[in-house]
């Protein structure tokens, strides 16, 4: 009798645990579906998960932010009082988000890259080659987003005025003065990576 009661109690606990986990998943999914405006996707990443969440997920939310419509200007991330300010805000928002995506892809690339290839690393040449290929893939995607970044920087720069988000305005200045040039940064990484890939290929060709 006691064994039956214990088994029923254990079954009930398992059922309640499963129900709780299922409810949690549904709640989180419902929350995700409520995100609609560009600013909401952006804030979801920046305020809650940007420093700790998987980079792939951050990139996905940032990509959604680029495609989503903007909220009413009264709920913008900057103080908006004129149409020109709203146009500049939208351009700089997309410029900034593209920069965050580039940075995330560079971080992903670094996970699979190595600054130096020593002779003992070549014992794992096959794995190195695969890892370097992945790094190259991420770097090249980041390069594509740089073109989008420059497009929105140019779009924002021709609109007079200034929005009250200094970080975005500073980024715009750095881009327009070529002090920030991800094309040079990424091309430099790709050239160094190509040299490392050639070293690995030369080693593999011996066998």
Walkthrough of the structure:
The protein is mostly helical. The protein is built from seven helices and no strands. It has helices at residues 2-34, 38-49, 55-67, 83-112, 125-157, 166-176, 182-204.
The profile of the biggest β sheet is:
none
Tell me the domain tally. Answer: 2
- Low-pLDDT regions: 5-33
- The helix-and-strand class reads mainly alpha
Measured as a percent range, the helix fraction is: over 70%
What best-fitting shape do the alpha-carbon axes yield? Answer: elongated
N-to-C CA distance: 70 Å
- The radius of gyration over CA amounts to 24 Å
State mean pLDDT (0 to 100 scale).
Answer: 82
Q: What order do the SSEs take from the amino end to the carboxyl end, as H and E?
A: HHHHHHH
State the total count of DSSP E strands: 0
Oligomer: single chain
Which range does the strand content fall in?
Answer: under 5%
- DSSP helical segment count: 7
């Amino acid at each position: 009798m006691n064994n039956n009661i214990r088994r029923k109690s254990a079954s009930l606990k398992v059922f309640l645990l499963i129900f709780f986990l299922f409810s949690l998943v549904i709640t989180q999914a419902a929350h995700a579906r409520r995100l609609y405006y560009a600013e909401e996707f952006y804030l979801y990443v920046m305020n809650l998960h940007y420093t700790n969440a998987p980079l792939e997920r951050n990139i996905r939310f940032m990509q959604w932010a680029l495609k989503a419509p903007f909220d009413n200007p009264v709920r913008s991330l900057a103080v908006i009082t004129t149409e020109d300010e709203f146009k500049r805000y939208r351009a700089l928002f997309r410029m900034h988000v593209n920069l965050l995506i580039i940075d995330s892809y560079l971080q992903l690339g670094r996970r699979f890259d190595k600054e130096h290839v020593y002779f003992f690393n070549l014992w794992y040449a096959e794995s190195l080659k695969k890892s370097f290929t992945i790094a190259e893939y991420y770097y090249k995607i980041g390069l594509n987003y740089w073109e989008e970044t420059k497009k929105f920087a140019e779009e924002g720069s021709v609109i007079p005025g200034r929005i009250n988000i200094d970080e975005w305005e500073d980024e715009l200045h750095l881009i327009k003065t070529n002090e920030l040039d991800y094309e040079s940064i990424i091309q430099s990484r790709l050239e160094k990576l190509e040299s490392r890939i050639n070293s690995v290929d030369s080693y593999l060709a011996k066998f």
